[in-house]
Amino acid sequence: MSYILDVKDLRKEYKGFSLGPLSFQLEPGYIMGLIGPNGSGKSTTIKAILGLIRPNGGSIRIFGKDQAKEMQAIKQQIGFVYDQNHFYDEFTIGEMKKVIAGFYEYWDNSLFSQYIDRFNLPVRKKIKEFSKGMKMKFSLAVALSHHARLIIMDEPTSGLDPIFRSELLDLLLEIIQDEEKAIFFSSHITSDLERVADYITFIHNGNLIFSESKDDLLDTYRIVKGGPDLLEPLQEEGLLTGVINNQFGFEALTADVAAVNDRFKGQVIMDKPSLEQIMVHMARGEQYA
Ligand SMILES: Nc1ncnc2c1ncn2[C@@H]1O[C@H](COP(=O)(O)OP(=O)(O)OP(=O)(O)O)[C@@H](O)[C@H]1O
């Protein structure tokens, strides 16, 4: 299988923080969400993939090429989408397009015009007058118009209204339909990931907790709820992760549904978890591990 993105044993050391080793892979035609609490290393991971920081170890291959050696060629086919202004503020879309088009070998003017129309972006306004959502749309139009095969986004839906968020998520699903592109994005909005992501990579305190198919995750784990008297026996058998005590007893995550059923059937309640519940309980489990 040829991966669009292949990260192996990636490490980055900062004073007081160490990321990795992280390993995960993304195939064409799929969307991967990167989740983790604040400060867990999501932006650091994205910066390393984009070649904006130098890792302390590991390797990153993009489109099968070694990122450390061939970043110039790779960049032609990466679209980094974010709302921060990496454009000239005083320029209009048309003026900005002339600058950007020159950077990209595969720039497609007519495709760009189509996206500008489709996103209803104002052609006469200066970019500094754009809202956050407009900047995001513009950034996405640029990425799509140079035929990026890997689209990377850092928190693309945060701060956007629900209507545009929903439009953006639909667009992401549309982008991967040709099965040639892949999307990698970080988000705190787990419901967005639940809707569009095929794979979820979860990091906590710089450590990789999992990088798995979303469907497998949602199938494997269950939320277990029970009275206080059951907590100890379940914990003794190592069946619970990230226990949260409440007025009725406890709530936790289990990956061993069969064992819980076998031993405690009828005594506990088991529900399908949301991605947010998986993340919260796992983060708790890590914190108190
Ligand atoms: N240039 C830097 N120098 C030193 N430490 C850094 C640098 N950049 C990031 N860090 C540290 O690395 C850790 C991870 O930061 P990072 O921005 O990757 O987290 P994040 O998961 O993206 O967080 P958030 O969700 O809050 O955006 C933090 O402890 C941060 O202080």
UniProtKB/TrEMBL annotation:
Alphabetized SMART domains for the sequence: AAA
Entries under InterPro entries matching the protein: AAA+_ATPase, ABC_transporter-like_ATP-bd, ABC_transporter-like_CS, ABC_Transporter_VariousFunc, P-loop_NTPase
CDD domains attached to this UniProt entry: ABC_DR_subfamily_A
MF term (GO), any: ATP hydrolysis activity
Annotated ranges, domain ABC transporter: 2-230
Record keywords: ATP-binding, Nucleotide-binding, Transport
The name this protein goes by in its record: ABC transporter ATP-binding protein
Organism of this sequence: Thermoactinomyces daqus
Lineage: Bacteria, Bacillati, Bacillota, Bacilli, Bacillales
